[in-house]
Specification:
By secondary structure, the protein is an alpha/beta fold. It has two domains: about 10-50 and about 110-310, Aldolase class I (TIM Barrel, Alpha-Beta Barrel), CATH 3.20.20; about 55-105, 2-Layer Sandwich (Alpha-Beta Plaits), CATH 3.30.70. It is built from nine helices and 13 strands. The protein has helices spanning about 110-120, 125-130, 145-155, 170-175, 195-200, 205-220, 240-250, 265-275, 290-305, and strands at about 10-20, 25-35, 55, 75-80, 80-85, 105, 110, 130-135, 160-165, 185-190, 225-230, 255-260, 310. The strands form three sheets. Strands 7-1-2-8-9-10-11-12-13 form a nine-stranded mixed sheet. A two-stranded antiparallel sheet has the order 3-6. Strand 9, helix 4 (about 170-175) and strand 10 (about 185-190) form a beta-alpha-beta unit. Helix 1 packs across helix 3 (about 145-155) and helix 7 runs parallel beside helix 9 (about 290-305). It is globular, with a radius of gyration of 21 Å. Bound molecules: iron/sulfur cluster (2 copies). One iron/sulfur cluster binds next to loops.
Length: about 300
């Protein structure tokens, strides 16, 4: 049996190349695993836990194949049906014997040298397109040391670096170890009411807002770009009341531009594969993409407040 990974070892989900939606140009996106927030709508539920997890996609399981069962020391697999999550110890012995990829280990330790070699190989694409490397997740700042090491290594090779963050991090180690190595930050603001933020995201928002204000001040020196983003989640963040509050906060701190992110319901399929219960099972509106008309109305609402909404 292989060793179970320790709880606090930083894990990565994957590195995705040729990405066009996570910053300027052609980028590689390094997805970290683990997040202090637990947003109910998270479209990457596999990124929430800091632990490695077993994903089982029943749709990919080959009918009549029972190969994994004989390799599970806990008898935790019901081929074609599911995993007994109480019995599974996450040893991952079943993963390499699965011929279809229905069983997957989600989350692996980072090998910085291997990772840098992979990122370096795509440098010609970054240079030709004005792209670079994006650190995403999960929450990359949860692995502050690894994030700083990777960002510094990229910058040392002239690779543009961008961090996507929910902003819930300790300021001092971030300012000291990560910020000097970043070209850009995409910073998510979700709910302006702190109690709502705690209810829907698991933590209050005071630290997030304080960190954002510090970054606004420092960004005036022009050493990095700062882009606030608001995920539009039906009936939760995507309300005129919440957008008004966020818009006024941004204008108060001197920010004029905000990016809106359309709601993405991919948790509907991903959650069950990881044994994570769907939280909005009864609400049809949470199982579909945001209506275009609503997104346009909310965008106009921010424009009316005096912001450029992109
Ligand atoms: S990861 Fe879980 S299901 Fe797979 S072999 Fe180990 S105990 Fe069995
Ligand atoms: S080894 Fe893979 S394909 Fe075969 S029964 Fe197990 S999960 Fe299904």
């Amino acid at each position: 049996m292989t060793a179970i990974l320790t709880k606090h070892e930083p894990l990565l989900l994957e590195v995705k190349g040729n990405a066009l939606d996570d910053g300027p140009g052609i980028r590689s996106v390094v997805f970290f695993k683990g997040c202090k927030l637990s947003c109910r709508w998270c479209h990457n539920p596999e990124s929430l836990s800091q632990n490695a997890e077993l994903s089982f996609n029943v749709a990919d399981c080959i009918s009549g194949c029972t190969r994994c069962r004989g390799h599970c020391p806990e008898d935790a697999i019901m081929p074609g049906v599911g995993i007994n999550r109480w019995a599974c110890t996450r040893c991952f012995d079943c993963v390499p014997v699965c011929p279809s990829g229905a069983l997957r280990q989600v989350g692996k330790p980072a090998n910085v040298a291997e990772l840098m070699a992979k990122l370096r190989a795509d440098k010609p694409f970054y240079e030709a397109s004005g792209g670079g490397v994006t650190f995403s997740g999960g929450e990359p700042t949860l692995a502050m040391e690894l994030l700083g090491e990777l960002a510094a290594a990229c910058r040392a090779e002239g690779i543009h670096t961008l961090l996507e963050t929910a902003g819930y991090f300790r300021w001092e180690p971030f300012e000291r170890g990560v910020l000097p190595h970043l070209n850009a930050i995409y910073y998510d603001l979700k709910l302006m009411d702190s109690e709502d933020h705690r209810a829907y995201c698991g933590v209050p928002n005071e630290r997030i807002l304080a960190n954002f204000k510090r970054l606004v001040e420092l960004s005036r020196a022009g050493t990095f770009d700062l882009q606030p983003r608001i995920p539009l989640v039906p009936d939760i963040t995507a309300t005129e009341e919440n957008l008004t509050a966020i818009g006024r906060f941004l204008l108060d701190v001197g920010v004029r531009q905000v990016r809106l992110l359309d709601y993405n319901p991919t948790w509907v399929d991903k959650g069950p594969q990881l044994g994570i219960a769907n939280k909005f099972t009864e609400l049809d509106i949470m199982r579909t993409w945001l209506p275009r008309g609503l997104a346009a109305r909310l965008r106009q609402h921010l424009v009316d407040l005096g912001l450029e909404a992109i």
